[in-house]
Design brief:
globular, about 90 residues, 4 helices, 4-stranded parallel β-sheet, 4 strands, Rossmann fold, alpha/beta, single chain
Length: about 90
C-alpha cells in the first residue's frame, strides 16, 4: 500500500504529515509506504498510490485523479490524522 502526503512545496508540512501518518499506521497495525510530495509531483505520484492525504485547498488543486483524497485540517493533530486515515482506508 502506498500513501502520498501532499503540501505546497513538499519539504515542510508534508514531511510532518508523513511522520504523523507513519505513527497512525503503526498504531493501527497497518503496513504502508508513505511518501511526502509537493503539489505538482503529487499529481503524477497519485497514479501509483492507494490514498492521498492533504489540506482542503490543495485537494482542489490536485484536479481529477482516480486515487481517493482525504482532507486533513490539522496536520499536527495525531488523533485527526489517525481518524482520517482510518476513514480513507475504510478500516
Amino acid at each position: 500500500m502506498k500513501i502520498i502526503a501532499v503540501c505546497g512545496m513538499g519539504i515542510g508540512t508534508s514531511v510532518l504529515l508523513k511522520m504523523n501518518i507513519d505513527n497512525a499506521l503503526e498504531a493501527l497495525g497497518v503496513d504502508a509506504d508513505v511518501e511526502a510530495a509537493d503539489i505538482s509531483s503529487a499529481r503524477g505520484a497519485a497514479a501509483s498510490a492507494d490514498l492521498v492525504m492533504t489540506s482542503g485547498e490543495l485537494a482542489d488543486q490536485l484536479g481529477d485523479i482516480d486515487t481517493p483524497v482525504v482532507v486533513v485540517d490539522n496536520f499536527v493533530d495525531q488523533d485527526e490524522v489517525q481518524e482520517k486515515l482510518q476513514q480513507g482506508l475504510a478500516l
